[in-house]
Predict the structure of Ribonuclease Y.
Amino acid sequence: MGESLYIIIAGVIGLGLGAVIAGLFLKNNGKKIEEEAREKAKSIIREAEITAEATKKDRILEAKEKYLRLKSEFEDEVNKKKNIIITNENKLKQREQSLSKELEQIKRKEAELDSKKENLNAQLHAVQIKKDELDKVTNQRISDLEKIAALTREEARDQLVEMLKDEATTKASSQIKDILDQAKLTATKQAKKIVLDTIQRTATEHAIENCVSVFNIESDDIKGKIIGREGRNIRALESATGVEIIVDDTPEAIIISGFDPVRREVARLSLHRLVQDGRIHPARIEEVVAKTEKNIEEEIVEIGERTCIDLGIHGLHPELIRMVGRMRFRSSYGQNLLQHSREVAKLCATMAAEMGLNAKLAKRAGLLHDIGKVWPEEAELPHAILGMELAKKYKEHPEVCNAIGAHHDEIEMTSMISPIVQASDAISGSRPGARREIMDSYIKRLKELEELALAFDGVNKCFAMQAGRELRVLVDAENVDDQTASKLSYDISQKIEKEMQYPGQIKITVIREMRAVNYAK
């Protein structure tokens, strides 16, 4: 028991000593670690201070360098502006000196002008005195002349003015004749040459198409088949085609009458197919007419394409090509419209080439100038304006559109091609036999032409010759002299141009014949 207690007490004492030793050891180690940490912190602080000091010095140096650079730039700018100011001041001084010299010169000139002005005033005063004296002498002489001639100044002036007026009128008439002759020799010579060359170089056929077509048959027995029982076949054919079919006593021929050439052509081709087939009855007639109309439309397109190829015109819109083909079945005053348009196209190309213009564009305008006549729909516009609108719609050249719209003077011409198309249209339409006019309008135009010339003073008789292309005017030889006759011819031509419409040109011939008649008794 005692030993155990001793052992326990010895153990407790041992533990206490170990704990004390361990505590002392830990205490010594903590102090050492703390001191090391403090030393390390101080070292870090010293390094940071050194780095901060170095950075501060670098910033200060950079700031000083930037300041010095900006200061140098500022001084350079100030020096430049100072130099500019000095230069401008020098220029102003020089300008001031030159202005002062000019001012001195102006003052000297003003002094000279004042001196000259005084001299002129003195001379003017002397002239006025002389003028007064001359007026007195003139008035005295005028009064003496009035006493001698028994005429007042106004009466003498009126007589002199009348004499000068007659003399001026005579000279003016003579000069007008000379000017016109000179203009005809110079200005018209080249134009006539171009037109004549164009007409001579354009060869075309002229044939008048009527409103009837003749369908030839091999024998008169076929007429009965065409007429049908109680005329039902011919009625069906007329109803399907819109034409009148005349079956008369003409041997081996049937007449197809209608104002529309397309309908007449459809009827003619349909009859040809029906006669060849031999089956002629209303149902077959309607079937053949429908096929023929389709074939005609295809033929129209083919005609338009072939025409464009023949003339060398490319790039036309398909609808314009179709309208060109329709021209084959239209006529204008009896003249086939397609042949007329082809001829106008060739004339335009020739004229444009002679004048150095675009021949292809002129040919295009000449071919399309009458497309307004073949538009299938009803329109209230003139055919020239309608054709221009169609050309614009299908993206034609502006010069072509203007030429189409202006070839009858509905709009103003804006290009050189427009008068060429107008002239070519007139040339084609005025050829002998090219067109057929209504007799009443033809006679009316000739009467108006003669009445217009008879309205002039001194005209005794006048006659329209050569289908209205020449007007012969007979004047009174006692009242109209040679110079007045020339002026009368010019005045009549001007009045015809202003008041009448006519194709081509009209030649005015004034005839002055002096007859001396006596009787032997």
